[in-house]
Amino acid sequence: MKFAFALLWLIRLLPLSLIALLSRLLGALVYPFATARRRVGLTNLRLCFPAMKPAERTRILRRHFGHMLQLVLEYGICWWSSPARIRQLVELKDLHHLTDRREAGEDVILFYPHFVGFELAALRLNLEVPLVSVYSHQKNQAMDKKLYAGRNRFDNAFIVSRQESLRAIIKAMRKEHAPFLYLPDQDFGRRDSIFVPFFGVQTATVPGLSRIAGLAKAKIVPAIPLRTAHGITLRFYPAWDNFPSDDIVADTRRMNEFLEQRILEAPEQYYWLHKRFKTRPEGEASVY
Predict the structure, then answer these.
(1) pLDDT tens-place string over residues 106-121
(2) Could you tell me the residue ranges of all domains in the chain?
């Protein structure tokens, strides 16, 4: 790992345009050999976009591999680059949707799904406001230590272990009205999920956004990081009205519908390599 960390330290010295070019080249090299992940990605795209031509789905996934390699290479920027450079690379657009709520004394949950710029964009936001996030420990101890330290690099984050209760998250949110970064779009199994449509496919989805918002009396402000030619734009959207409702299924479906709309804006930047449809309704065969 020391060699990998040293390489990331060196790469972060490059202009972002060169890092992006290197990422695309590495993505093109990795794509033919990443058989298992390629199969997962193409299956996800086929399920979400059945009317799309196979060649177009392949094009999206090839570009996605480049974006994923750039996510990896950007860890050097996250861990060692100056706050000034991070501010330069990430634009915060319509941040007032978040800060107005905090200044009014309200707690906020940031709906923050898995787009490829999420690590660097979250660190940029952490320069402006304290953040609460949930952390899953990594198997590799060196990587675990570096990731954990990187996410609390500016000593302005409240990091809660995935094994802790909702009470720990809500307690952390109420310190300084720190927004909670909520990433809801992965398959965590049948026990904690409900099935709602995602691009027309019944998908095991954790309904935690609705539950935590109700318990914490928090507003939902979506925040979507998208890569541009000059870096990343982290865009904030108006807080959702009438959320949560008294229908947790409708709330969870609303969350997925919003995510679908954002994915359609930049499909190659959404995280397609996760087995999002692994858990199937009773009686349905595995799609992978």
Answers:
(1) 999 999 999 999 999 9
(2) 2-269
